[in-house]
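Problem 12. The chain below contains 205 residues. Write out its predicted structure in C-alpha coordinate notation.
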Amino acid sequence: MGILQHTLGILFNPQSEWKSIRNDKSSFLQVFVSHVPFLALIPAVCAYIGVTQVGWTVARGEPVKLTAASAASLCALTYVALLAGIYLLGEFINWMSKTYGVKDDAERRHYEGTALAVYISTPTLLSGIVLLYPELWLVTAVMGIAVAYSVYLIYQGIPILMDISKDQAFMYATSVITVGLVLAVSILIATVVIWGMGVGPIYVD
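Solution.
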Protein backbone atom coordinates (compact mmCIF):
# COMPACT_ATOMS: atom_id res chain seq x y z
CA MET A 1 0.00 0.00 0.00
CA GLY A 2 2.90 2.36 0.75
CA ILE A 3 4.19 2.09 -2.80
CA LEU A 4 0.74 2.95 -4.19
CA GLN A 5 0.52 5.90 -1.80
CA HIS A 6 3.87 7.22 -2.99
CA THR A 7 2.82 6.77 -6.62
CA LEU A 8 -0.36 8.77 -6.19
CA GLY A 9 1.28 11.29 -3.89
CA ILE A 10 4.12 12.07 -6.30
CA LEU A 11 1.49 12.94 -8.91
CA PHE A 12 -0.84 15.07 -6.82
CA ASN A 13 1.18 16.36 -3.86
CA PRO A 14 4.87 15.95 -4.75
CA GLN A 15 6.43 18.28 -2.18
CA SER A 16 5.06 16.46 0.85
CA GLU A 17 5.47 13.09 -0.85
CA TRP A 18 9.22 13.62 -1.37
CA LYS A 19 9.51 14.18 2.39
CA SER A 20 7.61 10.95 3.00
CA ILE A 21 9.83 9.07 0.57
CA ARG A 22 12.95 10.38 2.32
CA ASN A 23 11.63 9.05 5.64
CA ASP A 24 10.81 5.65 4.13
CA LYS A 25 12.96 2.85 5.52
CA SER A 26 12.82 0.63 2.43
CA SER A 27 15.97 -0.59 0.69
CA PHE A 28 16.86 0.41 -2.86
CA LEU A 29 15.94 -3.10 -4.06
CA GLN A 30 12.53 -2.99 -2.40
CA VAL A 31 11.74 0.35 -4.02
CA PHE A 32 12.76 -0.87 -7.46
CA VAL A 33 11.25 -4.38 -7.44
CA SER A 34 7.94 -3.37 -5.89
CA HIS A 35 7.38 -0.53 -8.32
CA VAL A 36 9.14 -0.55 -11.70
CA PRO A 37 8.37 -4.08 -13.01
CA PHE A 38 4.64 -3.39 -12.66
CA LEU A 39 4.49 0.17 -13.97
CA ALA A 40 6.77 -0.68 -16.90
CA LEU A 41 4.11 -3.15 -18.03
CA ILE A 42 1.76 -0.25 -18.81
CA PRO A 43 3.58 1.10 -21.90
CA ALA A 44 4.67 -2.37 -23.03
CA VAL A 45 1.22 -3.99 -22.86
CA CYS A 46 -0.63 -0.92 -24.13
CA ALA A 47 1.76 -0.61 -27.07
CA TYR A 48 1.19 -4.27 -27.94
CA ILE A 49 -2.58 -3.82 -27.96
CA GLY A 50 -2.35 -0.52 -29.82
CA VAL A 51 -0.13 -1.68 -32.68
CA THR A 52 -1.84 -5.04 -33.17
CA GLN A 53 -5.53 -4.19 -32.62
CA VAL A 54 -5.88 -0.45 -33.37
CA GLY A 55 -2.92 0.52 -35.52
CA TRP A 56 -1.96 3.99 -36.69
CA THR A 57 -2.73 5.89 -39.86
CA VAL A 58 -0.42 7.58 -42.34
CA ALA A 59 -1.84 10.38 -44.52
CA ARG A 60 -5.43 9.26 -43.92
CA GLY A 61 -4.72 5.80 -45.27
CA GLU A 62 -5.75 2.46 -43.84
CA PRO A 63 -4.56 1.70 -40.29
CA VAL A 64 -1.08 0.20 -40.17
CA LYS A 65 -0.66 -2.74 -37.78
CA LEU A 66 2.12 -5.09 -36.71
CA THR A 67 1.91 -8.86 -36.58
CA ALA A 68 1.36 -10.31 -33.12
CA ALA A 69 4.77 -11.99 -33.04
CA SER A 70 6.62 -8.86 -34.18
CA ALA A 71 4.77 -6.66 -31.69
CA ALA A 72 5.41 -9.12 -28.85
CA SER A 73 9.18 -9.18 -29.46
CA LEU A 74 9.43 -5.38 -29.76
CA CYS A 75 7.30 -4.75 -26.67
CA ALA A 76 9.31 -7.29 -24.67
CA LEU A 77 12.51 -5.48 -25.66
CA THR A 78 10.90 -2.18 -24.68
CA TYR A 79 9.98 -3.62 -21.28
CA VAL A 80 13.53 -4.81 -20.63
CA ALA A 81 14.94 -1.46 -21.81
CA LEU A 82 12.68 0.42 -19.38
CA LEU A 83 13.78 -1.75 -16.45
CA ALA A 84 17.45 -1.40 -17.36
CA GLY A 85 17.20 2.34 -18.06
CA ILE A 86 15.55 3.20 -14.75
CA TYR A 87 17.96 0.98 -12.80
CA LEU A 88 21.00 2.53 -14.48
CA LEU A 89 19.65 6.03 -13.92
CA GLY A 90 19.36 5.27 -10.21
CA GLU A 91 22.93 3.98 -10.15
CA PHE A 92 24.21 7.13 -11.86
CA ILE A 93 22.28 9.32 -9.42
CA ASN A 94 23.85 7.44 -6.51
CA TRP A 95 27.32 7.65 -8.09
CA MET A 96 27.04 11.45 -8.40
CA SER A 97 25.60 12.01 -4.94
CA LYS A 98 28.81 12.60 -3.00
CA THR A 99 30.00 15.08 -5.63
CA TYR A 100 26.98 17.27 -4.88
CA GLY A 101 27.22 17.14 -1.10
CA VAL A 102 24.90 14.30 -0.09
CA LYS A 103 26.09 13.27 3.36
CA ASP A 104 24.05 10.12 4.00
CA ASP A 105 25.83 6.77 4.25
CA ALA A 106 26.36 4.58 1.17
CA GLU A 107 23.34 2.32 1.75
CA ARG A 108 21.03 5.27 2.26
CA ARG A 109 22.39 7.09 -0.79
CA HIS A 110 21.76 3.97 -2.83
CA TYR A 111 18.12 3.99 -1.71
CA GLU A 112 17.76 7.71 -2.45
CA GLY A 113 19.25 7.41 -5.94
CA THR A 114 16.99 4.49 -6.84
CA ALA A 115 13.93 6.13 -5.29
CA LEU A 116 14.53 9.31 -7.27
CA ALA A 117 14.90 7.38 -10.53
CA VAL A 118 11.78 5.33 -9.81
CA TYR A 119 9.45 8.16 -8.85
CA ILE A 120 10.53 10.66 -11.50
CA SER A 121 9.86 7.92 -14.07
CA THR A 122 6.34 7.32 -12.77
CA PRO A 123 4.52 9.99 -14.85
CA THR A 124 6.19 8.81 -18.06
CA LEU A 125 5.41 5.15 -17.37
CA LEU A 126 1.79 5.94 -16.53
CA SER A 127 1.44 8.02 -19.69
CA GLY A 128 2.17 4.82 -21.63
CA ILE A 129 -1.56 4.08 -21.49
CA VAL A 130 -1.93 6.46 -24.44
CA LEU A 131 -0.23 3.80 -26.60
CA LEU A 132 -3.57 2.00 -26.70
CA TYR A 133 -4.39 4.52 -29.43
CA PRO A 134 -0.99 5.03 -31.11
CA GLU A 135 -1.60 8.18 -33.12
CA LEU A 136 1.64 10.16 -33.34
CA TRP A 137 0.19 13.56 -32.37
CA LEU A 138 -1.61 12.14 -29.33
CA VAL A 139 1.33 10.06 -28.11
CA THR A 140 3.72 12.99 -28.58
CA ALA A 141 1.46 15.41 -26.69
CA VAL A 142 0.71 13.14 -23.73
CA MET A 143 4.25 11.86 -23.30
CA GLY A 144 5.66 15.36 -23.76
CA ILE A 145 3.56 16.56 -20.83
CA ALA A 146 4.63 13.54 -18.76
CA VAL A 147 8.33 14.13 -19.45
CA ALA A 148 7.96 17.82 -18.57
CA TYR A 149 6.38 16.85 -15.25
CA SER A 150 9.20 14.36 -14.61
CA VAL A 151 11.74 17.16 -15.11
CA TYR A 152 9.78 19.28 -12.63
CA LEU A 153 9.89 16.41 -10.13
CA ILE A 154 13.66 16.18 -10.47
CA TYR A 155 14.23 19.83 -9.60
CA GLN A 156 11.71 19.76 -6.78
CA GLY A 157 12.65 16.36 -5.35
CA ILE A 158 16.44 16.42 -5.16
CA PRO A 159 16.84 19.11 -2.45
CA ILE A 160 14.23 17.34 -0.30
CA LEU A 161 15.19 13.72 -0.88
CA MET A 162 18.96 14.32 -0.76
CA ASP A 163 18.78 16.99 1.96
CA ILE A 164 21.13 19.43 0.19
CA SER A 165 21.06 23.15 -0.56
CA LYS A 166 19.05 24.49 -3.51
CA ASP A 167 22.22 25.62 -5.29
CA GLN A 168 23.76 22.16 -5.07
CA ALA A 169 20.42 20.58 -5.94
CA PHE A 170 20.07 22.66 -9.12
CA MET A 171 23.42 21.48 -10.46
CA TYR A 172 22.69 17.90 -9.34
CA ALA A 173 19.27 17.92 -11.05
CA THR A 174 20.76 19.29 -14.27
CA SER A 175 23.32 16.48 -14.24
CA VAL A 176 20.58 13.91 -13.69
CA ILE A 177 18.66 15.25 -16.70
CA THR A 178 21.83 15.07 -18.80
CA VAL A 179 22.39 11.45 -17.79
CA GLY A 180 18.75 10.67 -18.57
CA LEU A 181 19.12 12.11 -22.06
CA VAL A 182 22.30 10.11 -22.66
CA LEU A 183 20.54 6.92 -21.57
CA ALA A 184 17.60 7.70 -23.85
CA VAL A 185 19.91 8.22 -26.84
CA SER A 186 21.80 5.03 -25.99
CA ILE A 187 18.54 3.06 -25.97
CA LEU A 188 17.60 4.52 -29.36
CA ILE A 189 20.98 3.53 -30.80
CA ALA A 190 20.61 0.02 -29.35
CA THR A 191 17.15 -0.17 -30.94
CA VAL A 192 18.54 0.69 -34.37
CA VAL A 193 21.27 -1.95 -33.96
CA ILE A 194 18.75 -4.59 -32.91
CA TRP A 195 16.48 -3.75 -35.84
CA GLY A 196 19.49 -4.09 -38.12
CA MET A 197 19.95 -7.62 -36.76
CA GLY A 198 16.50 -8.60 -38.03
CA VAL A 199 14.27 -7.96 -34.99
CA GLY A 200 12.51 -5.00 -36.57
CA PRO A 201 8.76 -4.52 -37.07
CA ILE A 202 6.80 -6.79 -39.41
CA TYR A 203 3.61 -5.22 -40.75
CA VAL A 204 0.28 -6.91 -41.38
CA ASP A 205 -0.40 -7.12 -45.12
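Discussion. The radius of gyration is 18 Å. Students who got a different answer should revisit the alignment rule from Section 12.3.
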